[in-house]
Automatic annotation (TrEMBL):
It is an enzyme of class 3 (hydrolase). This is endo-1,4-beta-xylanase. InterPro entries: GH, GH10, GH10_dom, Glyco_trans_1, Glyco_trans_4-like_N. CDD domains: GT4_PimA-like. Its EC number is 3.2.1.8. Residues 430-753 form the GH10 domain. The lineage of its organism: Bacteria, Pseudomonadati, Pseudomonadota, Alphaproteobacteria, Hyphomicrobiales. Keywords: Carbohydrate metabolism, Glycosidase, Hydrolase, Polysaccharide degradation, Signal, Xylan degradation. One of its GO terms (molecular function) is glycosyltransferase activity. It comes from Beijerinckia indica subsp. indica (strain ATCC 9039 / DSM 1715 / NCIMB 8712). Belongs to the glycosyl hydrolase 10 (cellulase F) family. It catalyses: Endohydrolysis of (1->4)-beta-D-xylosidic linkages in xylans.
Amino acid sequence: MRLLLFTSEFYPLRGGIGTYAAELARGATELGGDVTLYAPSYHQDLADDDLKCFPFRVIRYAGHRHTMKNLPQKLQIVRRAVRSETFDIIHAMDWPFFLPVHLMAPSKVHKLFTVHGSDVNEMRAPVKATIISLVRLFSGKSEILANSNFTRSLFNQHFPDIPPHKVKTEWLGVSDFWFQPAANRSETRFKLGVADDAYVILTVGRLTPRKGHLSVIEALSRLPERIKEHTIYIIVGPHYDGEYTSKVKVAAAASGCKTLFLNELSDDVLRDLYKACDVFCLTGHTKLNGLVEGFGLVYLEAGAQGLPSIAGNVGGMPEAVEHGKSGLVVNSNDADSIAQSLCELHDLPRFRQALADGALERAKILTWRRCVAASYGFSSHHAKWLQPHSSPISLTSDITQPQNGLARRSVLGAFASVGLLKTKILAATPTTILPLKQAAARVGLLFGCAFDKIAISDAAYGALIKTHAAILTTDYHMKFKALRRNGPEADFTIADSLITFADAASIPIRGHNLIWNEGNPDWLIKLPANERIEWLERHIKEVMGRYRGRIHSWDVVNEPFWPGHKKPGGFRDGPWYSALGPEYIIKAFQIARRTDPSAKLVLNEAWVERSDDLGLVVREELFKLLQDLSVRGLIDAVGLECHIRPHYTRNFDILAQFIAKVSTLGIDVYITELDVDDSIFSGSMSEIDDKVAEIYGDFVRAITKAPAVKILETWQLADRYSFYQDQRKGTARPLPFDTSLAPKPAYHTIISALIDAGSQPVGVVRTPQH
């Protein structure tokens, strides 16, 4: 097999793209491929170095930056290369070579284009996106490789016209070098002036805001003194951004922890440092115009030396680090969460060792050999060569547990049961009970709730929500009728205040909902069909446009099914259905996708938790609709409401099976409106609360077995503001907290079920949302 590779970054410049190019070229050569790689010269004569260092042919061209500048030069480079020889595969390894390879490479040659997270951000710029469309980039015999599911999703989101099947994920790998024996841990520490008993935290990466150094330093400042006094934070990486570096150094000086800045290190020294540290911590940052980590190769390199990681829930980080297996995934913007994880890894050395063992196993699986074989299609007779570090393990299965380690939640549960898990990190924590969002985060879930203006006017309730919710959904005040009750002109006053509340608390928000066949104002219902169709588009564009870039996800269409209306396919009747039939759903999602490509698009539905005929019909018809939306690339997740009414039969195993079926479509599942109607129960208040709690426990245990479930939300958080109160005159008790905002048995059962989830025998690999 003859391969021609083009990269805009390479040795001697250090970085992720250069490493990617070198390792794929090296791996393909060792598999028997004939590889030629074009790389920048950086205005140096590197011919001798290339011959000594690389087993493949390197041809240097003038230039030194990862950029689209000098496009004519790159066109000539590709043109000359493809004219001189014939190749089986031509691979543009980063964005600057996409257009040259597309325009100059022969049409019959198989072309590969590797998309990195930073590339997608470059490509989506208006001028560049227009060029991509005009030249029909990626058409013909071509394939797109993404370095993570996050990058693939981002690419599909911004380039919906490109068929999703042309884009596949190939995770990056870790080279043999990082597994080689490192220097003695004590010797390395001695050279750094670090005591053997110090708690050493390491971050490796350029000093740039998207790496999240400031979040880590803020977390360090919140550690209890007993930990802080012997904690040392080491930052390794080039200081290209002087202003940001200055901010980091000022913050570090005020943190109360000793901080070492080591600039760049050779790989040999860095490998020794990985071995000498206790925790690798790179959390990233989420509010930087989409510039986040596409994967995070450094987590694997650290893992090759048995160093567990704390990663952020942004970009592709959660794919490089398996939460609870090779490290912990935290909210990147939540210093409390980062600090809590640092405390746990300090106080629980057995748990830290279990994660260290898992990190090593993770690195053994995600090798460059696997990436090379999958990217270039080398045959299965190379299988033995592909995995020299570990016994055969399915890449789609859970990582084998280390012999001397326990699953994370099992370890935490064991320590908690004997009273050893008592870490307190913040004097200002609003409550001494474990926040639901923290318990959920440990199994890769975002816990949240619905909220409305009462969370603003009732300060105590607002504080409760901020303590326990990692995501929020608007209850009523973004619905069509709420915004346009008195006529076509929308009143966004309350909706704006809800956005402000969530932003101030740094909690992502879900918009609920854009289009629903119920709860619409009379003036809309009375309009002729053609005007209602116009309003469907106008409403979506106006509401989504107003909050563009500020909404985590939109419930684009709410509750499209109600078999009681006797419409074909079980659809719900109403002003939108009567105007367009089922096509109103497709149209709504198409408009939504165009209006805010950054938001996740959700279809929200009820009844699926029921095991009676109604539940069966809705699940069947809903799946058909999800298939259609998925094929069109219009949907990112389905919301399952789960207002559990014990009056009707239910089987949460059937629900879990349905979720597993939905996951085959490649979309996520959100539990959006969970509560338990207690009106059927009799007995004392405590007896009723226990019955409600039992149902919550059964439900949470069922859905945590499904990796497709990414969000778990209750419909409001406390009984005081449940919508059932209007029906029950203040006696309803369907939620985790009571009318006085105190935790009920339901709260404790949910916490217990989330902790128990870690000891499941099945392989649940859940990617936390951000």
